[in-house]
Amino acid sequence: MTKKTDIANLGEFGLIRHLTENIVLKNDSTRKGVGDDAAVLAYTGKEVLVTTDLLLEGIHFDLMYVPLKHLGYKSAVVNFSDIYAMNGRPKQITVSLGVSKRFCVEDLEDFYEGLTLACDIYGVDIVGGDTSASLTGLTISITCIGEAEKDQIVYRSGAKDTDLICVSGDLGAAYMGLQLLEREKSVYRGEADFTPDFGGKEYLLERQLKPEARKDIVESLAGAGILPTAMIDISDGLASELLHLSKESHTGCRIYEERIPIDFQTASMAEQFNMNLTTVALNGGEDYELLFTVPLALHDKAAALNGVKIIGHVTNAALGNCLVGRDGGEVGLKAQGWQDGRM
Amino acid sequence: MTKKTDIANLGEFGLIRHLTENIVLKNDSTRKGVGDDAAVLAYTGKEVLVTTDLLLEGIHFDLMYVPLKHLGYKSAVVNFSDIYAMNGRPKQITVSLGVSKRFCVEDLEDFYEGLTLACDIYGVDIVGGDTSASLTGLTISITCIGEAEKDQIVYRSGAKDTDLICVSGDLGAAYMGLQLLEREKSVYRGEADFTPDFGGKEYLLERQLKPEARKDIVESLAGAGILPTAMIDISDGLASELLHLSKESHTGCRIYEERIPIDFQTASMAEQFNMNLTTVALNGGEDYELLFTVPLALHDKAAALNGVKIIGHVTNAALGNCLVGRDGGEVGLKAQGWQDGRM
Fold first, then answer.
1. Same domain, B189 and B218
2. Which of A49, A52, A136 is closest, CB to CB, to B130?
3. Structural domain of A207
4. Considering the domain boundaries, does residue B342 fall inside one?
5. Same domain, A36 and A131
6. Positive/negative CA dihedral, B31, B35, A295, A172
7. Shortest Cα distance, chain A CAs vs residue B245, angstroms
8. Domain end: B152, B176, B201, which one?
9. What is the pLDDT of residue B13?
């Protein structure tokens, strides 16, 4: 039987100490981590990037099918993704947890195990930890601090007419993974009569439960000497992020349906669920891929990037934001957004 | 009748824009505020301080008697207090809100009004804003970033045997304010038969509902050329914070009951509630005063500081942490802590 230690046994300060005592600081920029009124960081000659995410049980995640270890991993990674989207490197996180009585010390250990694993892989230090009681469910608030050379920071606002629009990886898989998990949850509840079946759908589950931030793409770009003109990470769906880029850059865009990267498992699952595949890829969200623009002159360099696809180009604002279909017809992009969707 | 606009009318992005569109950035170190994947800060030659607080409805605050504007003000100020406790200056905050359906746009405007007021008074920029739906109640997560000269940062760990222990302001008032509000809440609910009466207790209410961070004390210390050896802000009660200082500094302490600063209203209220005044001052919490230690050689300078009282001295660790009573008897300090108490 699994051991379940009541959090009250440790007390608030004891719990924080227990969860953070084995942290080994990795970065030179971390001068003081957990344990004082504030963390102390030293960013000599670099600019400092700060991003924060609030994740609430029942809104952003469902513990019915998300293991706490995966949740810890994902909570960290989605923040790293925002730093990479500025062409920066994540270096520190602070973690605040609100925890209701149904959680035990071992649950939080699982969460921290995932969190720590992500931090080890991405070279990030946990510099602040805070836990508090909560009346209902689990609340997770993570702030990530990163660094970038001043002249290497990439904003959403720098896209120019004729720039190429590029996207890393493939889209829609995390959303289909969510659909799959929701279906299996219905099975579990006896609300549907499917037989649980994850065979051949491992990729979809992995994309939903254990996403990665595209550190590799940011490094490839630097290696290839490409500084994107604009960049954003795809958390709310390709369409929504394209509209953000266009709005901030005062531009428009044309992207081509046939060029949107989609994995075979995503396509097969969408067919099974009778969903429009392009809609899934445009609006699914939680892909944590990078969407960026590069000057047309860098076409060959961009085309040669591993795991990156050119899906369209930037236009002037008057032309609007359109998807060019396989038949050549154009439809306006809308941020359908799964409002208040998952992480 | 007060106007109540449904948050769904604006949508998530519309709401953030609405709440943050009038922000004017004040600090040179703020390069990019709300509106990209991350905020961009430039801290040339200074070290960066980061602190974060998670505030949950029903645990840290009760909207039955805390107006949202006050809550916004207090949420910001408690974070500033942590930065001052490092001898730093707060410069930026990010704000994440989880909001249930019972809140309307005007509620969040009230919250932001208080938040913005605090930021204006303390010279802080709001650089990140995020709102999300929540299943129950209001969740507030604020991260504050500040700066300090490298050789001016004061940790909890620097106290030395024979150092003087100093505290700013007075203690226990915020806790008595809370007791008063809780009593009036009982009245309102018909659970008690007191007549609501706040006359002559304004200071207690102010300390609970609209606390200030001790920017002035940090400035006085700098002005007097005093660099404390250790410092912490008093959020969980004097006793608890003294134990933190002693633990981190590997020291002990003696503080004198008769020297603990207490306001007349606090004393009179404690008597009315039949509570032990010293216990209130030691364990009440939410004072947001600064507790710091200075070398004995600086006695005269410290004694001359306005609004600061010397309450005891640091000892070696073997002597433990004691309160010396009015009768000269010693009792060990315990972090009684109102576990999971208010902010």
1. yes
2. A52
3. 164-332
4. no
5. yes
6. positive
7. 10
8. B152
9. 81
Query: Which amino acid belongs to residue A222?
Result: A
Average pLDDT, chain B: 93
CA A205 from centroid of its chain's CA atoms: 15
Q: Is there a domain that residue B122 lies in?
A: yes
Interface test with A, best of B41, B53, B54, B130 (most A CBs within 10 A): B54
Using CB atoms within 10 Å of the CB of residue B329, give its burial: 0 to 12 exposed, 13 to 18 middle, 19+ buried. Answer: exposed
φ/ψ (deg, to 5) at A139: -120, 130
**Joined tokens for residue B25:** 């950035």
- The verdict on residue A339 lying in a domain is no
**Lowest mean pLDDT segment, chosen from A293-297, B114-118, B180-184:** B180-184
For residue A52, give the nearest of A144, A179, A159, A125 by alpha carbon.
A144
Q: What's this model's pTM, rounded to 2 decimal places?
A: 0.94
ipTM of the complex: 0.92
Beta-carbon contacts of residue A274 (< 8 Å; ≥ 6 apart): none
- A228 assigned to some structural domain: yes
The model's pLDDT over A68-122, given as tens digits with 9 standing for 90+, comes to 999 999 999 999 999 999 999 999 999 999 999 999 999 999 999 999 999 999 9
Q: From the candidates B25, B41, B52, B233, which should be mutated to test the interface with A, based on the most A CB atoms within 10 A?
A: B52
- Note whether A181 and A257 are same-domain residues: yes
Among candidate residues A28, A148, A43, A145, the one with its CA nearest the CA of residue B46: A43
pLDDT of B196 higher than 70: no
Question: Which residue, A123, A152, A181, sits at the end of a domain?
Answer: A152
Put simply, the answer to whether B41 touches A31 (Cβ < 8 Å) is: no
CB spacing of A59 vs B156 below 8 angstroms: no
pLDDT at A339: 44
